[in-house]
Amino acid sequence: LIGYLGEINEEQLKRFKKADYRPGDYLGKYGVEEKMEDYLKGIYGGKQIEVDALGRELELLKKINPVQGSSIYLTIDLDTQIAARIAMKNKIGSVVALDPANGRVIAFISSPSFDPNIFSKGVSKGDWTELINNPLHPLENKPIQGQYPPASTFKLITAAAALEEKIITSTTKIYSGETFRFGNRDFRDWKQGGHGTIDVHRAIVESADTFFYQVGLKVGVDRLAYYAKGFGFGQKTGIQLTNEKKGLVPSSKWKKEVYKMPWYEGETISVSVGQGYFLATPLQMANAYAAISNGGKLFLPQIVESVEDIEGRVIWQFKARETGIVPASKETLDILKKALYGVVHEDGG
Q: Is there a catalytic annotation at residue 152?
C-alpha cells in the first residue's frame, strides 16, 4: 500500500527535468509513495552568489529557502489494518475493508508482502531474484492486481440480474437438488443431498449452487455480463495506486473475438456461480458489496484522507466521489441485504 522509494535514474532525471530533481535523489516508485510524490517531494533551497575571479564571495544576489514535503494522512484505520495483518499471518491472499458510505479504504492487506527498505538502498540481485521467483508473488499487490474467479460471492450479482429481469421474484421456489442435469453432464452442488425447494433468500443464505445454475441459465451470459459491469466488474475502480487490473467479464461477443468460438450454455452455468472465465479483484468485489449495502452507489475507493503542508494547513481533503449506480432497484437490494444478514444469522447460513 505505502510502496517504496528508490534512487532516481537517468531516464527519470530527463523526464522530470523541470521538477528540480538531482542525481542521488530518492523518489517514490510504488504505492502511495509514487502516486503522491508531487506532494511528498518538497523543494530544494539555494543561494545565488556573485564571486570575483578568485572565487571570493562578493554579494548574495538571491536566496530560496528550502520547503519540506507535505504530510500525507491515509484513510486506513490502524487498528483494523493491524487486525487484518494478524489474521493473514502465514496465509496467502488479501484483505480489503471499505466504508460503504463514501469509499474510504479502512484496511488494505496483501499477503505475503515484502520489506520495502531493500529497494531504498538498491535491491541486490539475490533479493530481486528471490522476490520475482517466489511462487506466492509477494510483489503482486493482490487487492488490486490479483484476478480471481469470485466463486460464490458472485451469486449476489446473478440473483440481482434474475430479480431485475423478472425471471424470479422473492417468492419464486425452485428445486435445488444435489445435482443439476444439463445436456449430458451433472453440475454438482456443494451440499450432499441438496437444499430442497427454496426461494432466492434461502438460496443465498445456504449458497445453493444448483439454484443459481438454473437461474443463471435463464438470465443468459450476456445479461449476466450487463449486470456484472453495472456492479463495477471488468473495469478499474480508479483507486490511486499503481497498475490496477480490471478483471474479466465474459460474454458471447468476447468469446467470439478472443477464441473465435461460440458461447455454450454450459459455460453460462459456470459463470452464474462466479467460475469459468470470470475474473475479479478483491477490491472490485468489496466495492460491489459496499454498493449493495449503501443502496446502490459505487464510490471511487480512496486511500488518502488529507494532505497538509509543513505549517499544518490542509491543501487537499478527502471528498467522496460517486462513480456509478448499480442496475438494481431498492427492492432488489433489500432482498440481497436481508439474505446476506441471513448468511451469518440464520441456521444453515
A: yes
Q: Note the residue count of the chain.
A: 349
The Cα–Cα gap between 303 and 310 comes to: 21
- With a CB cutoff of 8 Å and minimum separation 6, the contacts of 63 are 45, 46, 47, 48
Taking the CA atoms of the chain, what radius of gyration do you get in angstroms?
Answer: 26
Tell me the pTM.
0.90
Q: Is 43 helix (H, G, I), strand (E, B) or coil?
A: strand
Question: Which residues have a Cβ under 8 Å from the Cβ of 348 and sit 6 or more positions away?
Answer: 202, 205, 206
> Sign of dihedral through CA atoms 209, 296, 236, 129?
negative
pLDDT tens, residue by residue, 190-214 = 999 999 999 999 999 999 999 999 9
Check residue 238 and give its pLDDT.
96
Sign of CA dihedral 10, 11, 12, 14: positive
> CA 314 to CA 141: how far, in whole Å?
29
- What are the CA-CA distances from residue 27 to residues 16, 20, 108, 262 (Å)? 11, 12, 23, 49
Are 286 and 309 in contact, with CB atoms under 8 Å apart?
Answer: no
Residue type, 105: V
pLDDT for 274-328, tens place per residue? Answer: 999 999 999 999 999 999 999 999 999 999 999 999 999 999 999 999 999 999 9
Which residue is catalytic, options 71, 120, 152, 170?
Answer: 152
Report the first-to-last Cα separation within the chain, whole angstroms: 34
pLDDT in tens, 7-23: 888 888 888 877 788 88
